[in-house]
Amino acid sequence: AATRQLLASHLLLAHHRDDQAETFLMRLQRGSGVFGLAAMRPQVRAGDVVIFRPFLGVSRSRLAATAAVAGLVPVEDPMNSDPRFLRARIRRIMPLLAAEGFGPAEIAATTHRLALAADAVDAAVDRLIAEAVVVDALAVAAVDAAAFLAAPEEVRLRLLVRLLIAIGGEDYPPRFARLEGLHRAMASHPGHGRLKRTLAGVVLEWRAGRFLAYREIGREGLPTISIGGGYAGAWDHRFRVAAGSHGFSGLTLGPLGEEGRIAIGARAEGTPAGALAALPALRRGAKIVAVPALSYATMTAPGLDVTVTAILAERLAELPRFPDLAGQGG
């Protein structure tokens, strides 16, 4: 938050090689896959800020010595030595591991190789997206089932992660057991009959040789925001919204909802009703004024100038690199 308040483009963190080795071991203990075991990346984008870690190849002792020569006094986090925390317990046994050849330098070299492998998986996912995924103007992603199932399992799992984050908007993917359960249901589907699952704010269902993925409204619902003339921003991370300068007094932007969908008779061939219910709608009070994605507007909204554009394809193209400021996630 402070970084954004200062309008800074980069946030520099002093994580070093020893931190990297500890992060690897923490994630190994949690059963992380190749992306988690790649540990911290030197550069990660978090919205409009770049998290920058230039010291991942520098040892703790070297960094401390450099800081001392420069007259800098580092801030000591008491949690770093508190045995209640896994990182502190791992830090205590690191000398024993180093004595057996499992030192920070060796572990960090492994994380680098795993990062290269993770990047190769993402490159394969990019190709699969280009070949097998179509994203429409209603923010529905259609995945060709035959192409999806022909891909290697690690590529399929990574594609699911990218779909869930792009559509559901979570900062991190779901637990692997839940992700694996969804993947298993998709891989074992016989090609006929019903398949419908929800995970991480996303509905995934089978339709005519494709897996459709779209936003779940959920029990807590989707955001409703006030929108005035000249508004420009995003709604529910899936749509870019730009409003003209007139006619927006008292308007809100929120989900159409199932009742709203029925009320205006919204239909789109091949699109599930739930995906339509998750579209953004303009309301004045309780009355639906417009659903721009469906080109729907009432007679009470003449000249209402608002553009709503799905940005799901852009989000799907982004590589999830989780900020993980403490270097503990994965």
Mean residue pLDDT: 91
CATH topology of the largest domain: Rossmann fold
Distance between the termini: 22 Å
Extended strand count: 16
Specify the number of helices.
Answer: 12
Shape: globular
Instruction: Find the CATH superfamily of the largest domain.
Output: HUPs
Strand content: 15-25%
Whole-number radius of gyration?
A: 24 Å
User: Under the CATH scheme, which architecture of the largest domain would be assigned?
Assistant: 3-Layer(aba) Sandwich
**CATH level-1 class of the largest domain:** Alpha Beta
Helix/strand order, N-terminal first = HEHHEEHHHEEHHHEEEEEEEHHEEEEH
Which key terms come to mind for this protein?
single chain, 330 residues, alpha+beta, Rossmann fold, Uridine Diphospho-n-acetylenolpyruvylglucosamine Reductase, domain 3, 3 domains, five-stranded antiparallel beta sheet, 16 strands
Would you write up a description of this structure?
With 330 residues, the chain is an alpha+beta fold. It has three domains: 2-114, HUPs (Rossmann fold, 3-Layer(aba) Sandwich); 127-218, Uridine Diphospho-n-acetylenolpyruvylglucosamine Reductase, domain 3, CATH 3.30.465; 225-315, no CATH class. 38% of the residues lie in helices and 21% in strands. It contains twelve helices and 16 strands. It has helices at residues 2-5, 17-29, 34-37, 60-69, 86-99, 104-132, 145-150, 153-168, 176-187, 257-264, 273-277, 312-317, and strands at 10-12, 43-46, 49-52, 133-135, 141-144, 196-199, 202-207, 210-215, 225-227, 232-235, 239-243, 251-255, 280-284, 287-291, 296-297, 306-310. A five-stranded antiparallel β-sheet has the order 4-5-8-7-6. A five-stranded antiparallel β-sheet has the order 9-12-13-14-15, with helices on one face. A three-stranded mixed β-sheet has the order 1-3-2, with no helix packed on it. A hairpin with a 3-residue loop joins β10 (232-235) and β11. α2 packs across α5 (86-99) and α6 packs across α8 (153-168). The radius of gyration is 24 Å and the shape is globular.
